[in-house]
């Protein structure tokens, strides 16, 4: 039974899952959510009333949340690249860093973008400043961590890097990492050079005009 993925190519959480699919060359039927009145959007609402994406369908099973989808693929479509290590202690580190990237890179980055999407009278500069402060704290922590690492944990390329790649990609567009953080900048470049993520970035190029803060002319 073919896997179906409800996703949008420009969505960071969807790219997180696309990286995992591409790393292990897992075949799937793409159900793109792009465009108005897209029947795939109605199908998504039936499958998952929260309507957040990505959502994976495998026969009778519906799996939501990017991390859980990658977990599911590791169990049901295992491939040569193990994104969650078998060793429980190493897996703990990978999951912890995955939470870090979701909560302390993606969440503040999205807060800044959502604020920009609101009508001017509903924008909240204090909320944006809080999100920027959080990103600076996260960047500084990562700058130290990445001084001695190729990937987010010592387990090799993992679930944590699947999260880091799109979140740092868009976070840098939103709130620049800057030249004072060479280790983090180099890590973001390594992620961009990883073929699975490079492919996701290329597939999302046609949608760059969707970025509400204006996509920079790079990457
Ligand atoms: N916690 C979810 C977050 C998914 C998420 O926020 N997806 C965004 C796209 S990047 C989305 O569904 N946006 C549409 C909406 O919020 O209605 C996950 O890890 O998969």
Automatic annotation (TrEMBL):
InterPro entries (alphabetical): Glutathione-S-Trfase_C-like, Glutathione-S-Trfase_C_sf, Glutathione_S-Trfase, Glutathione_S-Trfase_N, GST_C, Thioredoxin-like_sf
Domain GST C-terminal: 87-210
Database matches in PROSITE patterns: GST_CTER (PS50405), GST_NTER (PS50404)
Positions of the GST N-terminal domain: 1-81
Gene3D superfamilies documented for this protein: 1.20.1050.10, Glutaredoxin
Signal peptide residues on this chain, from the entry's feature table: none
Name of the protein: Glutathione S-transferase
